[in-house]
Amino acid sequence: MSEAKKEEKTPLRDFEWMIRPCMMYKDEYDDCTSIKARFHQYFIFGKTVDCDQWKIDYRNCYQWEKHKSEEAYDSLIKSEKQRRHNRLHAHYQNDIWERREKPPENWNTSLPEWMQKEFENSYLHIRSKEMKEGIETSSLDTRCIIL
């Protein structure tokens, strides 16, 4: 295969970005059916959860990847949209918080003086200064701190 052919990639379809690598669906199914997960499901929900959709999605993903099956693609996208809807359902039903169209005008103002003073001695501030100065190994990295 020539370099030009390797560089050429087919453009993504409308919702193809939603499709995960196929092994992720298999891993999710394996995790969902593990003894540890089953115990957790029983503890949280009082019953085990149906994991078959992960298995179906894995099969559809394989059919899409290997054979470009339109039916498998449509089924997989439908499943991902449903999964996304279920995950965000509570967020969309929330009527307590007012949604913003843009960030507040003062979102990037400087921190209060007391907070800046506390930040001066923090690990992140010291390490950030060292990295800007080009110091690879920090004296902070060799200390053992027990909290």
From TrEMBL:
Sorted alphabetically, which Pfam families does this protein's record hold?
Answer: PANTS-like (PF11326)
Query: In the UniProt record, which is one GO cellular component term?
Result: synaptic cleft
Main localization of the protein described in the UniProt heading: other
> Mind telling me which InterPro entries this protein's record contains?
Pants/Emi1-like
| Protein's cellular compartments | Synaptic cleft
Show the PANTHER family listed in the entry: UPF0545 PROTEIN C22ORF39 (PTHR28052:SF1)
Similarity comment text for this entry: Belongs to the UPF0545 family.
What is the name listed in the Swiss-Prot or TrEMBL entry for this protein? Answer: Synaptic plasticity regulator PANTS
